[in-house]
Amino acid sequence: MIPYKEHEISSKEIRNRTLISFLVFVLLLVLAITLWKWLNHQPQEQGALKPLRKVLNYNEDVFNNFLSNNHLAKTFPVSSAVKKVRVNGNIGMSKDFDPTTWKLKVIKNPGDTLIVTIDEIKSLPKTDLVFDFKCIEGWSQVTHWAGVTFADFAKKYGLSEQIQKKYAGLITPDKRYYVGIDMPSMLHPQTLLCYEMNGKPLPMNQGYPLRLIIPVKYGIKHLKRIASISFSNERPPDYWYERGYDYYSGL
């Protein structure tokens, strides 16, 4: 066994190491400041600095490659669901909304719009879902929802041509809130056109009479109070994407 030998560091070595550490720190600081200034002088693209938007778009391509119908959000027993459900934003929830006049508009093609009532939606096979709703603000809750899967809805109303498109666009009655959803996520088996929360009709502040529940996305995509659904091969407008967020917003 080789005996351990102590090495005494001289004051000169200490000074040299300290100097090198300081120079490395200054170099990294200058590099960080330079990079920060460069980044903040880049043009904007859809609400975000162009280099950041490229990163977000790249992330979307990566997530799209992993999404499948086998990628299911974890579910929980009904007993795990909270009774007091948080509201993740109120944009699009105009107080002058008249629920008695509400009907869902499904824009199949220009000039061809399908009108569906809430009773017709409720007549379709009902799916209950208890999952951990995640908000980009950093909170989450196990919540209980029920409605019809969009896949079942599309089958019932003959939307086979429409679901071949790349995206669905959803908008509120006041047109203040709108989202774009990639079609694989829209057709995911856990994506609901939701009309119940905790076994009762949706409260007004949760999107009565119909909202989107899409567990493979963050809460910003769960549009409340759906007025219309449209389809396209181009990205539909998306409220938070226009303000610098990720279009995909997947989990």
Essential attributes:
12 strands; 251 residues; five-stranded antiparallel β-sheet; five-stranded mixed β-sheet; elongated; Sulfite Oxidase, Chain A, domain 2; alpha+beta
Explain how this protein is built:
The protein has 251 residues and is of the alpha+beta class. It has a single domain, classed as Sulfite Oxidase, Chain A, domain 2 (Alpha-Beta Complex), CATH 3.90.420. Helix content is 25%, strand content 24%. It has a five-stranded mixed sheet. Strands 5, 6, 9, 10 and 11 form a five-stranded antiparallel sheet that branches. A hairpin with a 2-residue loop joins strand 1 and strand 2. The model has no long low-confidence stretch (mean pLDDT 90).
The gist of it:
By secondary structure, this protein is α+β, with helices and mostly antiparallel strands.
Task: Tell me the quaternary state.
Answer: single chain
Structural class: alpha+beta
Ranges with pLDDT <50 over ≥5 residues? none
CATH architecture: Alpha-Beta Complex
Query: Based on CA inertia axes, which overall geometry fits?
Result: elongated
Largest sheet report: 5 strands, mixed
User: Helical content, roughly?
Assistant: 25-40%
Radius of gyration: 25 Å
Number of domains: 1
Q: What sequence of helices (H) and strands (E) makes up the elements?
A: HEEHEEHEEHEEHEEEE
CATH class: Alpha Beta
Mean pLDDT: 90
In the CATH scheme, what's the topology name? Sulfite Oxidase, Chain A, domain 2
